[in-house]
Amino acid sequence: MLCTLMHKRIPVIQMTIDDGTSSIISIGHIYDISHLPIGIGISDGKPDRRDLNHWWLSRSIPASRSGIREALELLQVPHTQLLLTKCFGLSLSDQYWINPNDHPLEWEKINFFENPFSEDVGNALFGIIPEETEIDLLSPDNTSDGWLKKKWYVINGKHCLMKGGSNPYQQEPLNEEIASHIMKRLHIPHTYYEVIWENGLPYSICEDFVTPETDLVSAWNIMKVKKKPNHVSSYQHFINCCEELGIPNVIPGIDQMLIIDYIIANQDRHYSNFGALRNAENLEWVGLAPIFDCGTSLWFDQLVIDANYAPSKPFKKEHSEQIKLVSSFEAFNIKDLDDITEEFSKILKSSPTIDSKRRVSLCAALDKRINMLESFITSM
Questions:
Q1: Does an H or E element contain 49, and which?
Q2: Does the predicted model carry a pTM greater than 0.85?
């Protein structure tokens, strides 16, 4: 397929995509290199094809997604990368897409922010057989990341993401909701999640915080704008890359993320579930994205709950070390979390897979994490 990588209405580069693998096999005319995705290397005025391929193929659903094999069978598609071209690479996380040269399309008529999309892919991802004999693959679910079941749909005109949990406790959606309550109390900018129940299972629902004017740029791509020297820590390298790009108010935002992750013992704050927002037209940076994706926390899959320890990401392997990176705690009042475990208990009571013993242990562990943080702040 000969096509043009577009950034909304702006042509970026011409490229050829292999129809069988969805890989970019060649790069042609360069229209506007300033609108390349962040983190793509440039040599002699040309984008690095390997970097571009990594960015492009990473937009596809990961092979680790729960239920993906069954979904692909329902959709009659051999692998997830082929879904990319079926939706022209369109996403609800940024404004990039591919425009076929032999059948040019218009952004206003094709983007998912302003136009309806098929629910067939999302339903298949949840094990629901599409009702129509003709399956429509034009869906933002083709470009959603993460390993848990999820799908986009529209509620009262708003784009919302529905995400499930994992065995044995199906606890991740409940964790998203309590994390939202904690961040609200601490005045931390965040994506609000609530829980709905379908067929006895919990699902978290959140509204898309990306608008038709913005791109979400992952920390992974931000950290590729320059090479990391061996003597520079991952934390400092991220800060340095943000400074080079001109992203404002980064350190206070990272402080907030490290604090909430310490409290909830988040185990999976990897470089793809935090990042920054920029304007897709004038390329000006808005700032760090509101905190999202906090489900893999609060001992979500562990039988034995140990409040004193939980592995951490992205900058240190243990939260006890990562919390030391916070530059200032002055904006936080830990007393705002008094009685938060009562809210947590109410949320947990709704779950048939979490018995009273586990509920009590989880609430006690959350309370201890808060006390541990308070002790750490007092000792400084």
A1: helix 49-57
A2: yes
